[in-house]
Amino acid sequence: MRHDHLITSKQLSRADIETVLDRAAAIDADPAAVADRHAGTLLGLLFFEPSTRTKMSFETAIKRLGGDVVDMGSVESSSVKKGETLADTVRVIEGYADALVLRHPKQGSATMASEFVDVPLLNAGDGAGHHPTQTLLDLYTIRENAGLDDLTIGIMGDLKYGRTVHSLAYALTNFDARQHFVSPESLQLPREVVYDLHQSGSDAQVREHESLEEVLPSLDVLYVTRIQRERFPDENEYQQVAGEYRIDSETLAAANDDLTVMHPLPRVDEIAPEVDDTEYAAYFEQAHNGVSVRMALLDLLLSDGGDDDE
């Protein structure tokens, strides 16, 4: 990897992505081969927002590489409560760790923080901005289940505020992927993201819809995201939309037999529990893939010889 920091999936070329995914596959095949590769390495965790999968999988990843973590802990128990700026926080923790993982509620925070540190900084989510490490594990899951070329994917739910959606959409422009975005009009993909996708040369492969029904039979992958109740001024309006954008066995009756259903989690009620035991469901596999993919990413960023394999 030829990047000091990973802030957005827009940084990543197809070669970058394949390097990480191939390394993750090698780790999955033989995890013992990297068990002590980064002994003594410390990963600094700075999570200004709640996290389960991202935080725990990063911690698991560095420990399986032989390293350990230093954790800022909750905002309430840190110097942030005393008014410390993000710039000062990352500069302090940089002195304790060999790399940093940052999650922050403000869009653009990871870009700003990266300007103050010399160790690698990985964006674990910046508001409604980007979540590139989630994208890498999403791509790994897609590759394992459906392949990344000649792919038809539907991305459904909160496309306006969903950072996982924005990151994935940009990354998929590196591949032969037809992207169908399904959402209520109020939660459509931001216009600047749509513009960027068209500018990428993939304009013939980006389509927007309000109904899943018209595209479901053609999909190889359906990527479902939570519709965020807190964004709606009227509860009745939310309930109407949320009920429409829900996947259950009846919905999937129109899907092709090889459809892969994904979700970055946490889910609320947008995928019925009855889907969990079907062959469509890949969202728990997706979450588990976060460990090997983040192991691969850390291995590449922390190894002096990481570029040699690219």
UniProtKB/TrEMBL annotation:
What GO cellular component entries does it have? cytosol
Signal peptide limits: none
Q: Does the keyword Transferase apply?
A: yes
**One Pfam family, short name:** OTCace
Under the heading NCBIfam families, the entry gives: asp_carb_tr, PRK00856.1
Instruction: Quote the function comment for this protein.
Output: Catalyzes the condensation of carbamoyl phosphate and aspartate to form carbamoyl aspartate and inorganic phosphate, the committed step in the de novo pyrimidine nucleotide biosynthesis pathway.
- Give the record's family classification: Belongs to the aspartate/ornithine carbamoyltransferase superfamily. ATCase family.
Q: What is this protein called?
A: Aspartate carbamoyltransferase
- Species whose genome carries this gene: Natrarchaeobius chitinivorans
Q: What is the lineage of its organism?
A: Archaea, Methanobacteriati, Methanobacteriota, Stenosarchaea group, Halobacteria
Q: Which gene encodes it?
A: pyrB
